[in-house]
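[job 4471] stage=fold_predict status=RUNNING
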Amino acid sequence: MPEEFFFETYRFSEDLDFTMIKPEHLDADFLKNVFSEIGEWIYEQTGIEIPPDKQDFEIYRNPRGQISCQGKISYKGPVSSTHGLPRIKIDLIADGRIVLPPVRAQIFHPYSDAPEDGIEVLAYNYIEAFAEKFRELAERTRPRDLYDVVHLYRNAEARPDPGRFMEVLRAKCEFKSIGVPRSIDLELHRASSRPGCSCFEARAADILRRTSIRTCRIAR
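[job 4471] inference complete, writing structure tokens
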């Protein structure tokens, strides 16, 4: 299940994360066959080629000791590259804790080739996506996690009930065997990178600045 499909002009993500409903599908041969079929359909519909020999699926055990997969899929677009084919990275897990029932969500596709019925996928519930990002921010304090949490919180219309949010957050933290994050935990991370402006703060500011520029360009 893709985790986020809630905002247009959202920040650029370097990969696509999915939680597999059927763990038995985490098999390299199975994935190669499926993506070869998908590649043929995409080529027929768009002319974009996804060479079968440029698809790689690495099966490994994650820190929880469970099977996961990282896939790399190359494609040939309308403009040929002189520096190798561009790639899409896909992360697949089957042991993620899904607390709330998934929802059907529309992918934002503001182009003329969009299907009449849109493009619908099975995705995380908004509350679950919010709680997941909040846990990740406390656990690894990456600038992009801070941006995600701020962006989700600023969406006032979809902001979840605090009690329901805490219920889901506790379940997410229990799965990772960590405590529910507190504001003091984030302050400790911030203080550990001082004196002066921390790398965390500088990178977070840069992400916010670049995303704002990108949004303005698209709006034009």
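[job 4471] summary: The two ends are 32 Å apart (CA to CA).
[job 4471] exit 0
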